[in-house]
Amino acid sequence: MATFLFLYVLSLFSLSLLILRMIQRKRRQACYILDYQCYKPTDDRKLSTELSGKIIRRNKNLGLDEFKFLLKVIVGSGIGEETYGPRMVFHAREDSPTYEDGILEMDEFFHDSIDKLLARTGVSPQDIHVLVVNVACITTIPSLASRIIKRYKMREDVKIYNLTGMGCSASLISINIVESIFKCQENVNALVVASESLSPNWYTGNDKSMILTNCLFRAGGVAILLTNKKSLKDRAMFKLKCLVRTHHGARDEAYTSCIQMEDEHGRVGINLSKNLPKAATRAFIENLRLISLKILPLREILRYALLSFVGKFVMINFKTGVDHFCLHTGGKAVIDSIGKSLGLSEYDLEPARMTLHRFGNTSASSIWYVLGYMEAKKRFKRGEKVFMISLGAGFKCNSCLWEVVRDLDGENGNCWNECDIDKYPPTSFSNPFMDKYGWLNHKDETTFDRNDFE
């Protein structure tokens, strides 16, 4: 009897110890956002209607057909007059950008956003153990990550990951890298930096599939400070619940749907092919299929499965497991399409629409401007769930779910607070381009004269 009792107590103790270790491991593996800072360039880099018109007119490779195409795209883009461009277009050097133009664009972002983030959190550069930088369209030697290490005098054993060519969905890839490191190491702080360098890829040809990028992409970036330190979790803003990555690069139509290339005259740009909507839809659906099993309650999954089995058309109600939606601001049509697929209201789509209107498509950092909008509007309450989804070249779709750790009052000094958040959404979205250049639609080759622009 004593032996049996001893073995029983020993087994109970071992089981308790195992459970305790599992709980400790889960706590150690937690991934928190301590704070983040979206970049707001200086006002002298705003692309107004007047300046945008001048930039377009400077391109002598464009004819009436291309002007009409650009007018249609810009008017229907959902982008306003306060977005930001690279400095070289303000100096009329888009035909001959230099290596230093790209470096300057990145340095201005690094110095502004990382400085603000570290000052607000009180975290020293020496306390950052992991640095992940993703900027798709510029490669430097030393790397951009090395430039950050040099400026901020980071520790010698900092682990760096410098990602290029990953496109608009790259920031969640960076988060995934940090999450994986956190599972293996305790008491780690990580800095994620995501942006895009427009200077080397401003297209000056007349290929319509490559002109599109000039209309949609704008300057921006985000710096995010993450941690798995238990001592900092009460200061955290968000906790990562799950993350799913989908990549269809093995399919030719997906791989070539968004690709950097030269046109027939050797001008470099990003080609957005006619296959892009189809490739994006496939990646989007596949990603939703995987992540829905992780973020939705069992009752909603069973309801959908049962009604689908009996032949009824039904949409999954993502609002049963999600309170807020951070959607990729790839363009007005992208936001509309995702919103329709998820059954979202105009209230749900407002943050993405306003981000596109105010900042344009800032590539990998776009979804963080959407997050910042909701924070500035004081929408986040403790315990609520935030769903992020982004699309990017490859073709890939990445998504994740965050939990709001504490009530957020929107006063952290992020970029939307500098934009007078109470002005959004505006009462009117009239596009000045149509008022100024609508006359192009009434011209043909026999009546059009470039001097009419003057």
From TrEMBL:
- Which Pfam families does UniProt cross-reference here? ACP_syn_III_C, FAE1_CUT1_RppA
Catalytic activity reported: a very-long-chain acyl-CoA + malonyl-CoA + H(+) = a very-long-chain 3-oxoacyl-CoA + CO2 + CoA
Keyword vocabulary terms for this entry: Acyltransferase, Membrane, Transferase, Transmembrane, Transmembrane helix
Concerning SUPFAM superfamilies, the annotation shows: Thiolase-like (SSF53901)
Pathway assignment reads: Lipid metabolism; fatty acid biosynthesis
User: PANTHER family attached here?
Assistant: 3-KETOACYL-COA SYNTHASE
Q: What is this protein called?
A: 3-ketoacyl-CoA synthase
Per the UniProt record, the source organism is Daucus carota subsp. sativus
